[in-house]
Amino acid sequence: MKERIKIAVQKSGRLTEHSITLLQKCGLIISHTKDQLIGYGENMPFDIMFVRDDDIPGLIQENLCEIGIVGANVAREKQLSYESSRSSSNFDLESSLDFGHCKLSFAYPESSSIRSVNDLDGKTIATSYPFTVKNYFTENSIDANVTEFSGAVELAPSLGKADAICDLVSTGNTLRAHNLMAGETILESVATVLKSKSEQSEFKSMWIEKIIERINGVLQVNESKYIMMHAPKNAINDITKLLPGTESPTVIPLDGVNDTVAVHVVCKETVFWETLEELKEVGASSILVVPVEKMLM
Questions:
Q1: Using CB atoms within 10 A as the burial measure, which of 3, 126, 152, 268 is most buried?
Q2: Which candidate, 150, 154, 120, 153, places its Cα nearest to that of 138?
């Protein structure tokens, strides 16, 4: 039977739709119905496993799945838990994606005297990320207790279980609703691609590298623009300096013109109107900015 590569993604949540869209932009056609926990790649040897996000690093760790898409906060917590048991993680954090942004931050009751991490010595902190928080305390020489609290961490101070919390924060509305004030952020997180370190067959290795290369290409495209213009030859250096994130431009002679050339360049950062106006000031004309659909680096 032909080998298949398993990609673990969040079953339901804020990463699910983005993860599937990313894989589709990589050219993967997925056959999947709403209630199925497995999606089948019709045109490539990939199966999509829809699982709890907390389970994804473990599936990669045991090489039950070769690739996973999960928040860096979850991946980091699992890495630290493996290290605490004197083992090492069997996966690499391959690519940081452009979705799933959140942050792991402390929060303090408005009624307490705690206002910063400097006030946490001897205090108890409730969190769903005990290994990440303990690691932060160790690195910053803070002598505080950490208690694991699964779900509704914001309730821990009100229930008398903790003096403060450390939890994921997006807008801060939930904190304010529970009379908590945001404190220091200890981890900025985005969705991340995990890849198993286990040895794979030549066939699997080829397809794993291919899909990761395509993922990186999609990430490049999201911020990239292809810019074409006419410009004086002596202005090319000035033009290159003005364009953000560019490599060397492609310079093409124009028929019947000696002192003006066509300049084509890919910008890997956002191009603003002000940039176009500055290009015009140094002599560029007929400036055209178009989106890039696909890119392999």
A1: 126
A2: 120
* CB-based burial, 150-166: b 16+ in 10 Å, e otherwise: eeebbebbeeeebbbbb
Residue 132 near residue 78 (C-beta atoms within 8 A): no
Per-residue pLDDT, 244: 72
For residue range 192-235, list pLDDT tens digits in order. Answer: 999 999 999 999 999 999 999 999 988 888 778 889 999 999 99
- Single pTM value for the model: 0.81
> What stretch of H or E contains 174?
helix 173-177
**Lowest pLDDT segment from 89-98, 171-180, 201-210:** 171-180
3-state secondary structure of 230: strand
CA-closest candidate to residue 285, choices 242, 228, 244:
228
> What band does 1 get if pLDDT is binned at 50, 70 and 90?
low
The domains of the chain, with CATH numbers, are 5-99+191-221 (3.40.190.10), 102-189 (3.40.190.10), 224-291 (3.30.70.120)
- Closest to 242 measured CA to CA, from 206, 267, 225, 215: 267
Give every CB contact of residue 121 below 8 A, 6+ residues apart in sequence: 142, 143, 144
Cβ distance 135 to 53 under 8 Å? Answer: no
**245-282 confidence digits (pLDDT tens):** 667 889 999 988 889 999 999 887 777 888 899 999 99
Calpha distance 134→107 (Å, rounded): 16
| Both structure tokens of 272 | 């603003």
- Dihedral sign from CA coordinates of 278, 281, 284, 288: positive
pLDDT at 174: 85
Tell me whether strands 285-291 and 225-232 are parallel, antiparallel or unpaired: antiparallel
**For the segment 11-30, what is each residue's pLDDT rounded down to a tens digit?**
999 999 999 999 999 999 99
Measure the CA dihedral 124/127/133/138, to 10°: 20
